What we know:
By secondary structure, the chain is α+β, with helices and mostly antiparallel strands. The chain is built from 13 helices and 48 strands. Strands 7-6-5-12-11-10-9-8 form an 8-stranded parallel sheet, covered by helices on one side. Helix 5 crosses helix 6 (191-204). The N and C termini lie far apart (59 Å). The relative contact order is 0.10.
Amino acid sequence: MTPPHRLRIPAPPAPPLTGHLPFADAPGVPDPIEVTSRYLTRGGQPWFPVSGEFHYSRYPARDWEEELLKIKAGGVTAVASYLIWIHHEEIEGRIRFDGDRDLRRFAELCARHSLDFIPRIGPWSHAEVRNGGLPDWLLARDCTPRTDDPAYLDPVRTWFAAIAGQLHGLDRAHGGPIVAIQIENELYDQPGHLLTLKRMAQQAGLSAPLWTSTAWGGVRLPPGDLLPLYGGYPETFWTEADGGWPDTCRKHFFFTHQRDDEAIGPDLRPTTVRGGDPSAVPDHFPWATCELGGGMAVAYHRRPRVEAADIGALGLTKIGCGSVWQGYYLFHGGTNPAGELTTLQESHATGYPNDLPVLTYDFQAPLGEYGQYRDSYHELRLQHLMLADFGSLIAPMESVLPEVQPVGQGDRETLRWAVRSDGVSGFLFVNNHQPHEPLPDRRDTSLTVEFPGSTRDLTIPSSPVTVPQGAYFCWPLRLDIAGVRLEWATAQPVCTVQDGERTVLVLAAVDGIAPELALDAGTVASVSAPSGEVADADGRVLVSGVRPGTDALVEVVAADGGRVGLLVLDAATARTVYRGVAWGAERLVLCAGGVVFDRDEVRVHGTSFAVLPAPERAPGGLRETADGVFARYTIDSEAGSGAALPFALVRPAGPAPKGATGVLGRASAPAGKHFDTTAAEYRIDVPEDLPQRGTVVRIHWIGDVARAYVGDVLVADQFYSGRVWDIGLDRLPAEALRAEGLRVRVLQPDADARVYVPDEAREDWGTAAVERVEWVAGRSWAVRPG
């Protein structure tokens, strides 16, 4: 048998440094935000924010509210967004904040639904947008962008004043949602210019308790004036087509205390140049992030495919590493707006190393380009629910690495694990997943954690188990639940729910690992379990063999007479968990699809849902059946449906366009003229009676590049990476669609082009064809108390 892995927790850490940075919240706010050297606080308590990027100018304004509610239901507490200058002022002197550019309305919607707002004001954003967001007219001037050149700062000052006018009264002093403002982006070697921009923004009237900057690439920041934020992606589109999976991505699936990621943005800075010494940062700032990969864009020359487990494992690993702010880029995909003068994507035509699609900026995000729920949304929501209840405990805890650690990034044999601890309790993190190079099962695994001053180590579980390939999880250590001490659980904490006098801790089992609960015998009077065995073992009460499910509620009577429940859900059910206000109280909701919470209203995308605790009576219009401690409801109408759509080949594909290259010799996307001449063309007829809201036309296709048109208008595009192609039905001009149908044109790939396509997609990659078309509806209903 392999000896247990060992980790010694040091003595409780010294109090963090406070008041050492010139960040200050507005006077008199009820929940002042502060920065310590190790974590953030809000209202005097440790605070673990979760931010998700959503670009309002890349999404229809009519749907912002629905999407923000979906983001909130996913456990995100703050919405970040680039304010993309060229989207607002493509024509000099005409700054637009109308329609889908209505910044103020977007910020007000965040406030309405208790979401913090983080504007990333640039002026340079990147965001895979034309010129990084700088308008063409600005670049045509005799000035040096992204410097203190007065000829550059003058229009920036006007831009900042326009932003400030839109956000006036939405700062914290006026009860607004703005908790942070990011200056510039990925500028690694000009601390003086960053400080100039911050001062200009303040002079324009912008205000926030936190001023931030991206910190990858060894950035040099003005001392103390900007909070450094880090990132990490599971894949890249900006590296070479034949470069393989980058080591800089591989490292994010290890537990480490290295914050910087030099892989982000090297396509736009010299890779041999570093801005400063990142080793000086950790002693002064907490480890906060703004760009953990919620997915990845695709460029023409490199088209990575990111799976839900890649995103979930990276996010959980970063918590174990010591992150105190989980910030995702992107959390919600979008579509580039149609430019008045030109297209607005990053491309070789504007001097960038990468050619991006003209319209789609889906990013394979947890919420897609048309608001589709992705599996990664459900993976991350589990982590966010845990942070909502236990983030204030985790944030002050230091990350501790085990005695035996992996040797180099090629080590696939050593178990990857870490503990966050305050010296008294903690959370144990394990990651046995990484993309492309699967990690093996870890057989006969047990983990020993030694707490300072304790006479008994924790060896978890009591008998060795196999950690399955692909598993990643967090287990609680010595966690107090309403007076009962949970020594450990081989299941991940989800949240707690107050059910009358009983506090229920909800846990998610790990596929392939039997749940085991260990309770400190001195804190319990009695324990009963619906399945499994309850046994005394060396001063602990062990509950083993629990069959996970909605009825796996272990009842505990505390030594002081209080009542505690430990509900162990199976992994699949746990991924359906949402939490929000329903029927006048906070509820835990299990739903077969997606759900959106809005005060007393629950909008359900799915066929059924369950509520814990159960309300006294079912809402009107729903059927009720008993299911253990749950009340389960089935919606009378069908929640989601779909069927095949007819399509026909109008024109077969001609020869593949001869490949061209652009910046850095990378393959360039075929010119638009080829879609009129050599592309295979299909017509898809869409019935008039299909529901518009939430319905997508789903196209199964193979080829190189595809574009969709209604009439002569380009409505969607895609680079092939093996994924299905969704097109939102409510984005299409209805009258023209009825008259002309949806026309899809697909180009054949050039066999000689240096283009990376995932292995699982390359086998069929060599022709141009639409293979199947269907419509998929995501109807929703408002469910209110009956």
